[in-house]
Design a protein that fits this description.
The strands form 2 sheets. Strands 1-2-3 form a 3-stranded antiparallel sheet. The protein is built from 13 helices and 6 strands. The N terminus is likely disordered. The protein has 3 domains: about 130 residues, no CATH class; about 40 residues, no CATH class; about 130 residues, no CATH class. A hairpin with a 5-residue loop joins strand 4 and strand 5. It is mainly α.
Length: about 325
């Protein structure tokens, strides 16, 4: 029996390939698998696809492929990714040399009279995969992987459904699989909006604020309680956050200098049993600056620069006016 689109009988293909038709079938089976992974076609569609002079039109991250005769107004035959085009063209050149009279894009050689789709079941490639100890991926899995990759990449179910030639409902109920990557992205997006520690506002003291005033557990009795009014109170607030920047360290050093001036003007006698609030603030800021200084070289340089500016009378803008006012009262 002759193939109506080829003009050569199956036995003639056997003769032309001199007994090496099994190798040709293996190559074609591998090409079918790659084609299905690229286009999302099912096996039956791919096996019955006709060989044409294809015309490529750039589209998204690849190409829309049309028949060259109807390239302007003709329908899109299939879509491929741009990296696959060169390989597909090499296959077409090889295929035209071996099967010049066949009209099939994937002319598998089989018994005369058998339908094209019965000639492909992946058995040849599966056997080779078993011998090599690697997993065999069937066409159905390839199609499903492509669909889920598109869904993850685009995050657009409607676009993915259109590319996969499905309805959005079918895509989401039948083909879409749980994705660790999507779950991670959605989790990050959720907590970037919901986590109070990431949604910061400017605090009264140097730094940021993430919530309502809440004193730390080891807060000294003489320290001012947090109330979002007194800057010193922020130093013992659980919701206060230091900022990893030179500007923040400069502000801390300037605030410490302001408290030192206040302490020098305090009229309350200093005894062994009483510590002025200003002294508590200075001690707290010293602890913070000491941590920055000991953490790494960059932060140590920030602390040194901030202290040098204070000695030169170059204070942070947030506290310069208050310092000048207090010093003017001296």
């Amino acid at each position: 029996m002759r193939n109506a689109s080829s003009g050569l009988a199956e036995t003639q293909y056997h003769q032309l390939l001199e007994g090496r038709f099994y190798l040709a079938n293996i190559r074609i089976e591998a090409e079918i698998s790659m084609f299905i992974a690229q286009t999302g076609m099912n096996s039956s569609q791919a096996l019955n696809e006709e060989l044409q002079k294809f015309f490529y039109i750039s589209h998204l991250d690849g190409y829309e492929v049309k028949d060259h005769k109807n390239r302007r107004r003709g329908m899109v035959l299939f879509q491929i990714f741009k990296d696959y085009k060169a390989h597909f063209e090499r296959y077409l050149e090889w295929r035209r040399k071996l099967f010049p009279d066949s009209g099939k894009l994937f002319p598998l050689i089989g018994r005369e009279g058998t339908r094209q789709e019965r000639r492909f079941n992946g058995a040849r490639i599966k056997l080779i995969c078993q011998e090599l100890g690697i997993p065999y991926v069937p066409p159905r899995t390839l199609r499903n992987t492509r669909i889920n990759w598109l869904l993850r990449k685009s995050a657009d179910p409607e676009l993915t459904a259109d590319l996969a030639q499905h309805t959005t409902e079918t895509l989401l109920t039948v083909y879409a699989l749980p994705s660790l990557q999507r779950a991670m992205v959605e989790t990050v997006c959720f907590w970037s909006k919901a986590d109070p520690h990431l949604v910061r506002t400017e605090s009264v003291a140097p730094g940021d604020c993430t919530g309502t005033p809440k004193p730390v557990e080891d807060m000294p009795d003489e320290a001012p309680k947090p109330d979002c009014i007194k800057a010193a109170g922020c130093l013992w607030c659980q919701n206060h956050r230091d900022v990893d920047s030179f500007d923040h360290i400069w502000a801390l050093a300037s605030f410490k200098h302001l408290k030192a001036i206040e302490l020098s003007k305090a009229r309350t006698p200093i005894t062994d049993k009483s510590v002025p609030p200003s002294q508590s603030a200075i001690d707290r800021i010293n602890d913070k600056l000491r941590w920055y200084e000991q953490s790494n070289e960059t932060r140590r340089d920030w602390v040194s620069e901030a202290q040098a500016r204070i000695e030169e009378g170059d204070w942070h803008p947030n506290f310069a006016y208050d310092i000048l006012e207090l010093e003017g009262e001296a």
